[in-house]
Write a structure and sequence with these properties.
The structure is a homotetramer of 341-residue chains. Chain A is α/β, with parallel strands linked by helices and 341 residues long. Chain A folds into 2 domains: 2-63, Alpha-Beta Plaits; 83-335, TIM Barrel (Alpha-Beta Barrel). Chain A is 34% helix and 19% strand. The first copy, chain A, has 11 helices and 14 strands.
Chain lengths: 341, 341, 341, 341
């Protein structure tokens, strides 16, 4: 930690500050510049709160030197984490996974039809919402446990593993038993109670970045899951909130290489929520793949105009099939390209 | 709902669209301009999804005419809601309330000392965190139920009602029994499971705006609480996330008059989180009051530089006492001023 | 234009409103819904100010139906604009162009060395700043006209056309005479005086999106250039300002397909300013290409650590050479992929 | 400047780095922590580019210790700058100024009527646009020099000084001769050519914050004006661009105390552009005053619904008169309140 001292600090203030730190096992090493004095704090700084330090009147500012996340950091775990998915599939470390399916499970016919189609096109897993977080209490809230049952039927028929969102710790046992990859949605990225609970299960967790969360906060949220010791985490970039209204969110594709450099965890991109419009899903799926993502999560609906949610950003099974072929071409090109982050 | 048709839409598409709507009890009335055709949809549009409609290829865009929130809307409930607080205090409808106390409860000495001080200065309620949502799992997470016990002791000694944050539905019974105003924090503003649960209790809920939530989304979140039928809601502006780094958040004070116009619910402002720096709390508390807020929630700590959290944005009891006097002067000036929103 | 009337508007107000419009040649066609009355305005609405209309007390809101840009719109000019560049090169309509070079021209040795290198690697044009817009008046401001002279020498030696930024109408004649593509920088995207002036020259203009400008505003700015009647415009996405601090800006790659759909103008991406870090330039250049960009503008410096500006985001000629080969592979893959926007 | 070294840096890299700095008269003093080594750079660091340093592979990050602005800094000039305005008025150092008038000058009747009204209500100066920066080239662009002539007539009749926006260096002589306070608009805050030119005139400059500019950038822009040596600067907060759509911009009132602490320059607030809605102007004018602003700039129009621009955010002369009385009450309350920033 670096502490910048104000120009008008007295010697008494500084001496008291240094002694106070020494009592806590922290040593302040001074660097005197022409206009500013700066201290580097060495020792066990874990007990220090930068905000508390900054509250001292003679301190100008406090700057952190180290990353605030640990278990998710590549400096803690240099190699890519590779996560096993159902059906012998993997994600991470060069393994690319596509999760596809409707925003929400609506009926057996719907989910079976879509699951069969995306399986045929080469999807790795089936996505589909049973519990739906909707901004309005008057919108369709999902089929709940009935939706989960329909996903299980679809899994049985197609062999695709299922990824679906958990909204409450109330259903933690059901999700542990029935779901292959547990999704924590963007709005719950900092629902720390939920993060800790899913971290106690032995299941991969798909953690979506909150629409106003920094990359650093996403990695701290991943740490909340990882401290549980049993779960693995897949990170998901799904767009951040900005002033631009031409898209539902601003898909932050630079987050992909930034994350790949900082963390060993697999990174997937959601171009459906990231853009909000079906016709932007295709080019942004290609772009995400070229940017180095480990996978994609894409909303596919057989009748988007009738979808109970997110129809505007869902592509048809036909377009998904075409997209999968195109993704293959980009993946092939990318496979011959190497660069250092 | 207004539907704008694309220039190259065919008559067959439009006819099909109209008939399809009529089957659902919705009538499309056309307005033909020189370059664009527009339909106004009349009838029971509640079953229509604007996003689904927009998915039709011949539709350019869909615009909503009505507000998406109901129970919190002033058109639903024209008069200000006035909420009873402990000790015969009120908030809303001209009643101003100040909630003050530390970011987190740290010890009996600490909370009793602060509670006694803020009570003497005229605070309406005592705030203090028992369960703390922290971005990092390695930061102090609050004393939990022990913290709640200390708050109860402080309430007993001072007579101040207590407001504290709920982070999980697991503690819903304890909060119902022990807490006077239940706070739902900014990170949980769209934790819909939690919103529904607290809405079933007969307690006032202090609902903080999420750092990237629009005012419209805040009101929809309030509706999630209000549909429970028993709770009352106090809204809290606490800063939104922007590119500016000179403050922790950007305190959106315009949200105060916007909310006062749109909703009957009381609106309080949190200048501590809203700015992140203790020396900005004072002027922004004055400004929030002048903007028409129904109250304030302010972090006060007797030893801010040693605080286990948020020391940088906490003011001392001495400064709080001075601030309360100044707020009185602004309140007095404001009491003679009238304007229409 | 759509006008939504407030619930409590009187008949007299509405009648007066309709008559007033009729006097101006505009006809208001009513659609009465259950809770709201809406008017569609037909006729010559160009004289109406939506903001002025909204000022009427009985009007709830005014919604625009048409796009506010014209000359840059694809509905005005359905085919891709193809722009001729020096050396028989083109951009747009399937022609891909890479503009490469240093942030600022520093010396003859520097610019010649870099120009020779990027030419050999296949760059289409040489970029380099002579006049530099710097946030601080104490930073290096560019070599000015001397820098322009050095660019001309580099053009003569390599045959590469030059693109450089104009900061003031004072130099309009020099730029007309000497520069191949005139860049209007992000900070000047709404310097309307400058836009009008460059629009009177018969030169292609590279118009960079302002860091807080919407796509719609970018297209209106393009219209400012195009109304001059002589210039052609290349649009450039170079990152927008958001709360994320891991990158200098947030590169909004979704803007590429959004722009390709809305406008006939070529769209290039600047991954150097868009990310701010040299190691992110490579993956984001690949991603931009996969997203459908018509070209790239990339900062290349032979000694980035000694660069007088933007060293942190500049790549070396060696890395640029490798990147050009990789871009070729992505271009090849993309050439076989077709999708509808 | 603080340089954080990567964990895997070699001794050779570090030695080379230190020697290289010493050649430039800069000394690197090391602080070795348990996990990180940090250098504080002492000496003449003005020739160093932090971005360039950060480009070295063995460097993790570079952190600046000093503020990047100088002439506008309070550490450079501790006392408040007080600026003389026409008619013996002042702004700064406890002097409060209200600039009022229409968005744009439309006719002699209009500007005379409004000027007379705002003068009577106590306005300090008359604002009014002659040259108008409009997002669309198809919108009314102002009366230009004719508008300036009308402002002069209004000045002569009312005695109010005039503040109006300069959009181009072409008119620098006219503005020097005719205008009392020269406004540089938000879109031109980083039009550095213009800033330098107006800084050469002996006139006060009203510098508006760009909608996506940080406070630090605003102060650097002020330095661009101040290095000219003759002009004085009044800073203006007028709202920043965020995701919130309920207001035209998000008025960042915290910027007022932040600026008052960092700079000696007067700070005014524009609640008209800052909110975009006439009914929000009143409460936000009160709030800005309570936050410690040195003045306000407010759009007033005698027929807002017919205004050629910005009618939606203009208040009537009647409302302005009422507001001035209310501002007096807040000013009176504030005059008895003291706090430390």
């Amino acid at each position: 930690m670096i502490v910048v001292i104000k120009d008008d600090a007295t010697e008494a203030q500084i001496d008291g500050f240094i002694r106070n730190l020494e009592d806590r096992g922290v040593f302040a090493k001074a660097i005197k510049g022409e206009s500013k004095t700066v201290f580097g704090l060495v020792g066990d700084v874990s007990s220090l709160s930068p905000e508390g330090l900054a509250r001292n009147e003679f301190i100008d500012k406090v700057m952190k030197v180290s990353e605030p996340y640990k278990l998710s950091s590549r400096s803690f775990h240099p190699d890519d984490t590779v996560i096993d998915l159902p059906g012998g599939k993997k994600i991470g470390g060069g393994n690319f996974a596509v999760m596809a399916g409707p925003c929400s499970v609506e009926s057996e016919e719907q989910i079976l039809s879509i699951a069969t189609d995306v399986k045929r096109s080469g999807a790795t897993m089936l996505r589909g919402g049973a519990f739906k977080p909707r901004s309005s209490p008057y919108s369709f809230q999902g089929l709940g446990l009935d939706g989960l049952d329909l996903l299980k039927i679809a899994r049985q028929k197609t062999g695709l593993g299922i990824v679906t969102e958990i909204m409450s710790t109330d259903y933690i046992d059901v999700f542990e038993k029935e779901v292959d990859v547990i999704q924590v949605g963007a709005r719950n990225m900092q629902n720390f109670t939920l993060l800790k609970e899913v971290g106690r299960l032995g299941k991969p967790v798909l953690l979506k970045r909150g629409p106003s969360s920094t990359i650093e906060e996403l990695l701290m949220a991943a740490d909340y899951v990882l401290v549980g010791g049993k779960a693995q985490v897949i990170l998901c970039e799904r767009g951040i909130r900005t002033f631009e209204t031409a898209t539902r969110n601003t898909l932050d594709l630079s987050a992909v290489p930034v994350l790949k450099k900082r963390t060993h965890l697999p990174v997937v991109v959601d171009p459906s929520h990231g853009t909000g419009y079906w016709n932007l899903v295709y080019p942004m799926a290609l772009a995400a793949t070229a940017a180095g993502a480990d996978g994609l999560i894409i909303e596919v609906h057989n009748q988007p105009a009738q979808a109970l949610c997110d129809g505007q950003q869902s592509i048809t099974p036909q377009l998904f099939d075409d997209l999968m072929k195109s993704l293959g071409k980009i993946r092939e090109a990318i496979s011959t390209i190497e660069y250092t982050l």
